[in-house]
Write a structure and sequence with these properties.
The structure is a single chain. This protein has one domain (46-182). It has a 4-stranded antiparallel sheet with strand order 2-1-3-4. The protein starts with a helix and ends with a helix. It is an alpha+beta fold. Helix 4 (112-123) crosses helix 6 (146-156). The longest helix has 17 residues, at 19-35. It has helices at residues 2-13, 19-35, 76-83, 112-123, 129-134, 146-156, 174-182; strands at 52-58, 69-73, 100-107, 168-171.
Length: 183
């Protein structure tokens, strides 16, 4: 009986796809990664198991101009594939606006807990006591979009304890990097 249950679990873990489904998924993945900007040699450590927070934006920004997603990962390459539906996983809230692209990745956190704390403040800055104390005027009007999230990121990097950590922000698209530098 126990052996049958274990075999049943093994069967459910591995989803079987038809040849056509595998070909469609492979084509989508090739197209996505051909258009995805490559990380510089300096940024290669992000592809290892590093604690990081990231900002996503739909590739179809004309259709979804206000949509963003902030998350935590140890493997950005795998995580973007999950969000885009190429492999299992990904957040439920990202399913409707696929495909997604990275805006930036923040790394250099001293621990996983620290990265998760940073992610929480980036997602909901108005619930953070330290953020509200440092930027009391920010909650007056609800704002959306990647520009707002980049502004919040800039603000968070100036408050304690985040300002004391050796955090590194990598923009994976030149347009977003130029925007962040202009602010």
């Amino acid at each position: 009986m126990l052996v049958e249950q274990l075999q049943g679990l093994d069967r459910h873990e591995h989803t079987e796809y038809s040849v056509e489904q595998r070909e469609v998924r492979a084509a989508r993945e090739r197209t996505h990664f051909a258009n995805m900007p490559r990380l510089s040699d300096e940024a290669e450590p992000y592809m290892g198991r590093v604690w990081g927070c990231y900002l996503l934006r739909p590739q179809d920004s004309a259709r979804f101009p206000r949509a963003t997603y902030v998350g935590f990962t140890v493997n950005p390459h795998r995580r973007i594939r999950q969000h885009n539906g190429l492999i299992q996983g990904g957040a439920r809230s990202t399913r409707m606006r696929r495909p997604w692209e990275f805006v930036c990745i923040v790394s250099g956190f001293p621990s996983k807990v620290a990265a998760l704390q940073f992610e929480r403040v980036w997602q909901k800055p108005l619930l953070s006591r330290r953020y509200k104390e440092s930027y009391p005027s920010v909650g007056a009007k609800k704002q959306f979009g990647h520009a707002y999230k980049i502004k919040i990121l800039h603000d968070i990097l100036t408050i304690l304890p985040f300002s004391q950590w050796p955090l590194r922000v990598t923009f994976l698209n030149e347009e977003y990097r130029k925007y962040a530098l202009s602010k």
